[in-house]
Design a protein that fits this description.
By secondary structure, the chain is α+β, with helices and mostly antiparallel strands. Helix content is 30%, strand content 32%. It folds into three domains: 61 residues, no CATH class; 95 residues, no CATH class; 63 residues, no CATH class. Strands 1-2-3-4-5-6 form a six-stranded antiparallel β-sheet, with no helix packed on it. Strands 7, 8, 9 and 10 form a four-stranded antiparallel β-sheet that branches.
Length: 252
């Protein structure tokens, strides 16, 4: 019986080698001791025993002297862990879950629901372009909440194409409208509009004057349920239409 050694990735590993003759043939068995910490003192490390000693002469295991300094185990090819932004993603996820919106999201039946939820969170929390989504995701607590999400640009395009189908719309709103009607009082609504400044040359972009501030924009009108703050409806109008003019048509 003897101790053999192997070099793996620049690290030395030990094993107990035993040879015996059985029916005229020599059979060798090996038992791994793991990584060599101190060869002369017989100190090794493996997952099963941790740090330990082994005495070949007595074939016994033991514990190293407490005064022995054990080097910190350094693993290769281990990616650095990021410090994640926590609070914003945690709150949005809590809110979506608490109001019962998650089943409506799941109803769209996209194969990777983690991607849908992570992209939704990206749109809520950031105003960056889609090509920044993967970088944002890697530094957000969303990567812990939705570990299977893939927010690479091409995958986002595939996702938006899939959930943009009429069947996905219908599946989502079928669940969503039931959610609205089962949350108690919700007859009162709030209506507000906001300007979307842009320089696109098409009929909806128009000159707007808000308290003397001139801009080219489109008007986006939102209706939300007052009791829950959940959105009910939205529509767009030309940027030069004032808010009062949109109110009647929006209600209708």
């Amino acid at each position: 019986m003897y101790i053999g050694y192997d070099l793996k990735g620049g690290e030395k590993y030990a094993k107990i080698c035993k040879s015996e003759r059985i029916a005229g043939k020599v059979k060798t068995t090996q038992v791994s001791l793991g990584r060599v910490i101190d060869e002369s003192a017989g100190i090794y490390r493996n997952r099963q025993r941790g740090v330990f000693t082994y005495d070949l002469s007595t074939d016994t295991y033991g514990s190293p002297d407490p005064t022995v300094v054990i080097p910190v185990l350094k693993r290769k090819n281990t990616a650095e862990k990021f410090i994640l932004d926590f609070g914003d993603a945690f709150f949005v996820n809590w809110y979506i879950t608490n109001i019962g919106l998650e089943p409506a999201i799941n109803e769209m039946k996209y194969w990777n629901c983690d991607s849908v939820k992570a992209l939704l969170m990206f749109y809520i929390l950031c105003n960056m372009a889609n090509y920044n989504a993967a970088e944002w995701f890697s530094g957000s607590y969303a990567s812990v909440l939705y570990p299977k999400a893939n927010l690479e640009s091409q995958r986002i395009s595939d996702l938006l194409s899939a959930i943009g189908r009429e069947s996905s719309y219908r599946a989502f709103f079928n669940k969503y409208t039931k959610l609205l009607t089962h949350r108690g009082k919700g007859a009162d609504v709030l209506i507000d509009s906001t300007g979307l400044p842009n320089s696109i040359h098409f009929p909806l972009t128009a000159v707007s004057n808000h308290n003397g501030q001139i801009s080219n924009e489109i008007r986006m009108i939102y209706v939300v349920q007052q009791g829950t703050n959940l959105p009910l409806y939205f529509r767009y109008a030309a940027g030069n239409i004032i808010d009062v003019s949109t109110l009647t048509k929006t209600l209708l």
